[in-house]
Specification:
2 copies of one chain form a homodimer. By secondary structure, chain A is an alpha+beta fold. In chain A, 32% of the residues lie in helices and 20% in strands. Chain A starts with 8 loop residues before the first helix and ends in a 6-residue tail after the last strand. The A-B interface holds A 62-63, 84, 87, 93, 95, 97, 100, 103-104, 107, 109-111, 113-127 and B 62-63, 84, 87, 93, 95, 97, 100, 103-104, 107, 109-111, 113-127. The structure holds a DNA duplex.
Chain lengths: 130, 130
DNA sequence: TTGTAAATGTTATATTATTACATACCGTTA
DNA sequence: TAACGGTATGTAATAATATAACATTTACAA
């Protein structure tokens, strides 16, 4: 069983927005969308984002500076993330392949270093854009 | 044999700097370092960086917004990159494991999508920081 | 030698993210 | 319940990263 994280007010507002969007959102677009709810400053957004990333409710798509809700709803894999990104339409999907995650989690580099975390971003054209 | 890219003046100045550094450099730190050579504006730096990334002479470390010279000197793998990043000292190494690159280049997701490119960043503690 | 793609120069501005400081909230435990 | 500590919030200012728009120059193949 996972630890339950009770989201604070701002965290909940921002998580709900990103979750409903179903696609990556950028910080200032989030800010714009939550201003009517009383969140007025970038820092309020970034603080909530930091926390949500930390507890695995959302992930940052590093190559896009954007945030997407975790699509592996019940299993918080915030330390082993993989995404597919369409270079045409920018659609992003989280990849949940236990084979892939096992392979990468067990990967050891030539110096014998083992890793506690990874992030993988695949690029290509999605079904619709091909 | 690879295609030879003759670097332009700015590209060469900036590549040499990054290459000598042997570690990731940020755009504005690069700018600061090349001002004495006549490169005065951010855009001049970013244009050179874009080109160098495109031809595989450098890679962007997405999670750090920084650029490092390709360490696989002769084989330009700019479409299949993997790095190890120490979360303590920020040391970054390029991983060149043909097994890993084969595995990832051939990876197909559940929808049958195959990818033309990937970037993988591993995190952990390096030998010195452990 | 001329057409064209690539590269350069310059100014301004957009976008992304953090620092610093003050205050409020919430659960624990003395 | 009062005091404490950790977490969250509010606000203003600013730092850091990146691009737009436009003018000009260079490299080089046709």
């Amino acid at each position: 069983m996972q630890k339950q994280h009770n989201l604070s007010k701002n965290q909940k507002i921002i998580f709900d927005l990103i979750d409903k969007a179903g696609e990556p959102m950028k910080a200032y677009s989030i800010l714009f969308n939550v201003q009517k709810k009383g969140i007025k400053a970038p820092l309020q957004v970034y603080r909530a984002l930091d926390k949500l990333v930390e507890i695995g409710k959302i992930h940052k798509i590093e190559s896009r500076n954007a945030f997407i809700a975790c699509q592996n709803s019940n299993c918080q894999i915030s330390k082993a993330t993989a995404f597919s990104i369409c270079e045409n339409c920018e659609k992003v999907s989280e990849i949940s392949s236990s084979k892939l995650s096992k392979y990468l989690s067990n990967f050891v580099d030539h110096s014998g270093m083992k890793f506690s975390k990874y992030n993988l971003e695949f690029f290509g054209l999605c079904k619709n854009c091909k």
